[in-house]
């Protein structure tokens, strides 16, 4: 252990009555929920970037955090790795996630950056073997460096496209080497600021070509993990091409990739797109592309992505209900794409943020499981749609009736449907019984 978290003991489950701020009140990794350990349901991961690379900046102020690895080279990157694995051990999380730019300093050339990434992978490999912590997913930062100011795969300069391809390959290689369960593509600047200088169709074709090459390379190297695309509607561009789950699905279908790629859905991005998180989860499940989640929240009074730790048990209940109904996580998990507030400058604040988030998710999971076990909610949904199981309804749904035939039946039988209550208030009260 390093001295960064000096004096802090590993966080343990102490139950709902504890007042210990460095203990779990609800997250008990060995508790069995619907036949599976809680740890195996939730599959928590710490995000390397927000926890160790973010400096506490905002659009109106500079760095507030002081970390011993800031402004350093490879030695500092190794110190950062030491501290990161200390945090993983203190929290008892099974996974972590990273971007390349967060774990190694940028080199003077692509070759130097790749060499540095490989060197940090050596460090990770050793620490993962020592601790048992695994890699949920790796990804490449294709937005921060100014070379990506006009996009990465969608850039008008083919040399930037080529640099992007090389960067993704290097990160996929490291992800596979470290046994990563997934590889994520987040199009940080894959969008446009203005249509005045944009050929939208051209850029979509470029993005599809890059994704197709990623899928081809996955199969070539035998990577068994899942390729994930992370939807986001805006920030930093005016309009992102991966706006939301529906947009991503349409893109995948157009280019024949819907059976190869799934989505990593973030709470904050769902809200920026004008959706609830559970909407995006339910839609991804219905379309067969649900993969993994980034768990955080936005400030409802801010119009931007604040990446705060989750603290609303009702929201996480609805989220995990849809995740459980979708069959749970396969290769995915719950990654905390969450960062401290810029005033939370102490090392222990990293513990508090993750403890609160993990407890909130655990409460949501247990409540969601209780809703499923109780059965009242699912019974209501079954009752509401049961008439679609009738012979005539199935004939309409399966295409065995034409528009003219349906219209003739309505006229002949004098069909005049009565109103049926959606019972929203009853359902809201029902869900609140379990939270």
Give a topology summary.
Blueprint: E1 12-13, E2 23-24, E3 32-33, E4 36-37, H1 38-42, E5 44-47, H2 48-53, H3 74-91, E6 95-99, H4 100-103, H5 110-131, E7 134-139, H6 158-177, E8 182-185, E9 191-192, H7 200-221, E10 226-229, E11 239-240, H8 245-254, E12 261-266, H9 267-272, H10 277-287, E13 290-294, H11 313-325, E14 334-336, H12 347-374, H13 376-384, H14 391-397, H15 403-413, H16 424-432
Helix pairs in contact: 3-5, 5-6, 6-7, 10-11, 11-12
The main pleated sheet reads as: 8 strands, parallel, barrel
| Beta-strand percentage range | 5-15%
The CATH class of the largest domain turns out to be: Alpha Beta
Number of strands: 14
Number of helices: 16
Mean pLDDT: 97
Helical proportion, percent range: 40-55%
The CATH topology of the largest domain is given as: TIM Barrel
Order of helices and strands: EEEEHEHHEHHEHEEHEEHEHHEHEHHHHH
- What is the distance, rounded to the nearest whole angstrom, between the alpha carbons of the first and last residues? 38 Å
Strand order of the largest sheet: 5-6-7-8-10-12-13-14
């Amino acid at each position: 252990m390093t001295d960064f978290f000096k004096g802090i003991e590993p966080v343990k489950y102490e139950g709902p009555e504890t007042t210990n701020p460095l203990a779990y009140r609800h997250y008990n990794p060995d508790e069995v929920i619907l036949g599976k350990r809680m740890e195996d349901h939730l599959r928590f991961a710490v995000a390397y970037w927000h926890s160790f690379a973010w400096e506490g900046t905002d659009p109106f102020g500079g760095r507030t955090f002081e970390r011993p690895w800031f402004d350093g080279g490879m030695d500092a990157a190794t110190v950062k790795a030491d501290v990161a694995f200390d945090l993983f051990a203190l929290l008892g999380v099974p996974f972590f996630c990273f971007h390349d730019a967060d774990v190694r300093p940028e080199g003077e050339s692509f070759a130097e950056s790749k060499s540095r990434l490989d060197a940090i992978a050596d460090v990770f490999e050793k620490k993962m073997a020592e601790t048992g912590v695994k890699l949920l997913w790796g990804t490449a930062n294709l937005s921060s460096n100014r070379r990506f100011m006009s996009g990465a795969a969608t850039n008008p300069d083919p040399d930037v496209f080529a640099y992007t391809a090389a960067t993704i390959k290097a990160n996929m290689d490291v992800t596979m080497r470290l046994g990563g369960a997934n590889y994520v593509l987040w199009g940080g600047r894959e969008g446009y600021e203005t249509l005045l200088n944009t050929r939208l169709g051209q850029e979509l074709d470029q993005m599809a070509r890059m994704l197709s090459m990623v899928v081809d390379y996955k199969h070539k190297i035998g990577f068994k993990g899942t390729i994930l695309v992370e939807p986001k509607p805006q920030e930093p561009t005016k309009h992102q091409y991966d706006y939301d789950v529906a947009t991503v699905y349409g893109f995948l279908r157009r280019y024949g990739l819907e059976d190869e790629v799934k989505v990593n859905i973030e709470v904050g991005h769902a809200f920026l797109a004008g959706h609830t998180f559970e909407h995006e989860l339910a839609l991804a499940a219905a379309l067969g592309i649900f993969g993994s989640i980034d768990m955080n929240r936005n400030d409802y009074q801010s119009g931007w992505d604040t990446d705060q730790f989750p603290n609303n048990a009702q929201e996480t209940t609805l989220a995990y209900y849809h995740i459980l109904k979708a069959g749970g996580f396969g290769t995915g998990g719950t990654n905390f794409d969450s960062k401290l507030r810029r005033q939370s400058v102490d090392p222990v604040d990293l513990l508090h943020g993750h403890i609160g988030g993990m407890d909130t998710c655990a409460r949501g999971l247990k409540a969601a499981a209780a809703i499923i076990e109780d059965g009242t909610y699912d019974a209501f949904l079954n009752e509401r749609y049961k008439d679609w199981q009738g012979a005539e309804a199935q004939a309409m749904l399966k295409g065995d009736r034409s528009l003219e035939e349906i219209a003739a039946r309505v006229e002949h039988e004098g069909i005049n449907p009565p109103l049926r209550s959606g019972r929203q208030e009853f359902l809201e009260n029902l869900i609140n019984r379990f939270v």
